[in-house]
Amino acid sequence: MSTPTEWYRDPYLISTSSSLLQPAAVNEAFKSDSLYWAKPIGESLVKKMLEKSLCFGLYELPSSTSSIAGKSGPRQIGLARLITDEVSFAYLTDVYVLDEFQGKGLGTWLIECLEAHVMKWPELRRIMLLTDHTNKFYEDKLGVKPFPQGVKSGMSIFSRIGLGSVLSD
């Protein structure tokens, strides 16, 4: 994967560094009712999932050096995960900000940082994501639009629900 990129907005950090990712924190978030599309899985599987993706981790920075003592890094409070070749295609999934940090513009900032990052890829053909409804947020922040199906576009999107899905067709 590419060299890590970081963005700061006191007291928060967004980073693509895989060394900051906290699989246990991501798995804990998967337990939340807010992440209705996910469920907790084995931590080794979460680690593998994160390693195979370009992740934008959202972190709460410590307020003082004394609060760093004994910690291995800042607390992970959000994530946006891209399944990508980092050249031509990116599939966005697992976007969240923990409930206690919502309403601070952090989700918007997370997607803006992701957008700035992928728009540096001159050969990017498509960004895709799945959502259960028309989502004006992603339309505004990423410029995505519902994919036109049928004869007019000549293209269709196909999917299949897997054994690990918590969603139904």
Could you explain the architecture of this structure?
This is N-acetyltransferase domain-containing protein. One of its GO terms (molecular function) is acyltransferase activity, transferring groups other than amino-acyl groups. InterPro entries: Acetyltransferase_Butenolide (IPR053144), Acyl_CoA_acyltransferase (IPR016181), GNAT_dom (IPR000182). Pfam families: Acetyltransf_1 (PF00583). Residues 24-160 form the N-acetyltransferase domain. The chain is 22% helix and 22% strand. By secondary structure, it is an alpha+beta fold. The protein has a single domain, classed as Gcn5-related N-acetyltransferase (GNAT) (Aminopeptidase), CATH 3.40.630. It has a six-stranded mixed β-sheet with strand order 1-2-3-4-5-6. Helix 1 packs across helix 2 and helix 3 packs across helix 4. It is globular. It starts with 5 loop residues before the first strand and ends in a 27-residue tail after the last helix. The mean pLDDT is 90.
Summarize the structure.
GO terms for molecular function: acyltransferase activity, transferring groups other than amino-acyl groups. By secondary structure, the protein is α+β, with helices and mostly antiparallel strands. It has helices at residues 23-30, 43-51, 106-118, 136-142, and strands at 6-9, 12-15, 54-60, 75-84, 89-97, 126-129.
